[in-house]
TrEMBL record:
It comes from Streptomyces griseicoloratus. Residues 1-33 form the signal peptide. CDD domains: M23_peptidase. This is M23 family metallopeptidase. GO terms for molecular function: metalloendopeptidase activity.
Length: 237
C-alpha cells in the first residue's frame, strides 16, 4: 500500500503572499485617502474663495451705500442752507425796498438849496435843485402811490413845469419838477428807485435840473428841507 503525500507550501511563501495582499490593500487605501484629501482641499479652497468674494462684495456694497447716504445728507443740508440764505436775502431785499430812500437822480451837482432867497422865486426856495443834463433818469426816492402827474406843476402852478408828486406810506410826499417827460400816471404804485420820468428844463427854470421837494401834504406850501430829510434816512446827499 502506497502512501499519498500532500504537498505543503513553505511558510515563507505564504507570508510573502499575505504581505503582498496587505501592501496592495494599503496602497489602495493610501491612494484613495490621497484622492479624497485632494478633493476636500479643492472644495474647501473653492468655498473659501466664494465666501471671500461674497464678503468683499458686501463690504463694497455697504461702503457705496454709506457714501451715497453721506452725499445725500450733505446735499440735503446744503439745499436747506441755500434755501435759508435765499429766504433771508429775499426778506432783506423786501425790507430794504420798503424802508430805504434813495437819491432821485445820479451824477448830480447840488445847486439852489431849500429856503434859499432869490429873484427866481416869489418866496424862499421850496426844495433842493439837482443839476443834471436834460434826459437824466429820475427815480422815486421812496416807494408809494402817484397822486399828481403832468404839466402846470401837476396842479401846483406853471413855475414847476412838468411835475410828479408821490405819496409815501409814512404820510410824507415827494415832488419832482421841471421834467422833460413824465412816465407815470396818477394812481400808479411805484417802488423805491423805480424810473418815473426824465429830467428837463420846463417851467420857471434857469437851466437843466431836477427840482425835488419833501412835503407833509401833496400841495405847494408844505415843504420841509429835503436834504436833511434824505440824510436822516441814510442817503448820502
Amino acid at each position: 500500500m502506497s502512501l499519498r503525500v500532500t504537498p505543503r507550501f513553505s511558510r515563507p511563501t505564504t507570508l510573502r503572499t499575505r504581505a503582498a495582499v496587505m501592501a496592495a490593500g494599503l496602497g489602495a487605501s493610501v491612494a484613495l485617502g490621497a484622492g479624497v484629501a485632494a478633493a476636500v482641499d479643492t472644495t474647501a479652497a473653492s468655498n473659501a474663495s466664494t465666501v471671500a468674494s461674497a464678503v468683499q462684495a458686501q463690504a463694497e456694497a455697504q461702503a457705496k451705500a454709506a457714501k451715497t447716504a453721506k452725499a445725500a445728507k450733505v446735499a440735503k443740508a446744503q439745499a436747506a442752507a441755500n434755501a435759508k440764505k435765499a429766504t433771508t436775502a429775499k426778506k432783506a431785499a423786501v425790507t430794504k425796498k420798503a424802508a430805504s430812500w434813495v437819491d432821485p437822480v445820479k451824477g448830480y451837482t447840488l445847486t439852489a438849496s431849500f429856503a434859499q432867497n432869490g429873484g427866481m422865486w416869489a418866496h424862499k426856495h421850496s426844495g433842493q435843485d439837482f443839476a443834471v443834463p436834460v434826459g437824466t433818469n429820475v427815480v422815486a426816492a421812496h416807494g408809494g402811490t402817484v397822486v399828481k402827474a403832468g404839466p402846470n406843476g401837476a396842479g401846483d402852478g406853471p413855475a414847476y413845469g412838468n411835475a410828479i408828486v408821490i405819496k409815501h406810506g409814512n404820510g410824507t410826499y415827494s415832488q419832482y419838477a421841471h421834467l422833460s417827460r413824465v412816465d407815470v400816471r396818477v394812481g400808479q404804485v411805484v417802488a423805491t428807485g423805480q424810473h418815473i420820468a426824465k429830467s428837463g428844463n420846463t417851467g420857471n427854470s434857469s437851466g437843466p435840473h431836477l427840482h425835488f421837494e419833501i412835503r407833509t401834504t401833496p400841495n405847494y406850501g408844505s415843504a420841509i428841507d429835503p436834504v436833511a430829510f434824505l440824510r436822516s434816512k441814510g442817503v448820502t446827499v
